[in-house]
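How a chain folds remains the central question behind the approach discussed here. This step matters because it turns folding into a mapping between discrete strings. The sequence in question and its structure tokens are set out directly beneath this paragraph.
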Amino acid sequence: MAQRLLVIDGADQGRVFPLAKGSTLLIGSSNRHADISLNDLYVKRVHCLLHVGDRVVVKDHQPNTGGIFVNGQLVTEQELRPGDVLRVGNSHLRLEIEDGSRPVEAKETTKEGAKETAKETVPEKPQGLPVLPAERLDELAGHTFGHFKIAEVLGRGHCGVAFRADDLKAGHEVTLKVLPVEFPKRDAEMQRFARVLKEALPLRHDHLVAVLAAGKTGPYCWIAREYVAGRSAAQAAERAAAGGKVNWKEALRIAAHVGRALEFVHRRHMLHSNVTPANVLIRQEDKVVKLADLMLAQALEGSALYAERLEGKLLAELPYLSPEQVDPQASTDQVSDLYGLGAVVYARLTGRPPFQGATPEETLAQIQEAPLTRPRQYQAGIPPDLEAAVLRLLARRPEDRYPTASELLADLEAVAAREGVAL
């Protein structure tokens, strides 16, 4: 009797893999190396083997490096019976008879290994996703990616579109960033994307936007992250530029909260590499500031998509880049992230970036050579010690800046104490 594997949970939910008797199939994440290819960042290139004969037997390809689970139990080799659930990475695959039937007494297993009463209905196969050019990605609203149902567009970036989405499994809102179909062009691009984001997935901090999941559904790679209802520092700076009242206390909170996030990241020998106003989010309910898009630039680095969009991205973000980031011969490190924070705070204080000319060439020349206008020349009410901290963050020579986020935070906390501001 013919059998199949049905993905009941994970980015590939609804996909069916027929099992031909007499075959040995490789399960993994590589289209080139695996017979059953899963869009799961926790699945290795080749994760396990499936022998299909009179019995169906799964065997870990490299024991002790990732693991496989059958009905919630860690195994190295195990016979599968109809109704058994195999977990590979974060993907759950159920063995079924080809017609979709299975024994009534079969049990399913959640990710925590708890037994649940068997369900007699087979999950519906997700509706096929349209293949859309980058400029029409907003038309994905209403579609489902794994267990994420897309709602409205939140914003457009140079390398994708961010949507608000509903996590149908967890029951809360997320931000789902969807990349254009041209990514990845090569298997190496997908492997780098998976490898880098795996480093970001476990990171949790009060002032970092948490990365919740990432994967590939149909032709689209995506990243699910914590949803932050509020506004960005870019929107706050625009309001200040339009004549709104400058809120230096909010600027101080931005500096301190993002400084704490960078301290956390840098202690783990990581860089953000893209601290810009658009990536600094201010939560409406409590004014907590969070830094978004951690390690996205590194995940896409070297890809054809990143190369194609790099010029536009650099032009848009040029006023917030450090001198070493616009110098092809220079290297960047944690003080480059701190410069970016200084540029964000400067914009919140003044309504404009530190440097901005009429042309990109003029802006570049200003970043490299022009004196910086002090924030108090725009707004005299800014505390002198806060201005001094921002100016030090924006020092042209990296060695003149704060060497660490911890030293910056010490000065900011002193300012907050003197001014009676709660951070």
Observations:
- Residues 238 and 244 are 9 Å apart (CA to CA).
- DSSP finds nine helices and 22 strands in the chain.
- The first strand starts at residue 3 and ends at 9.
- The longest helix spans residues 248-267.
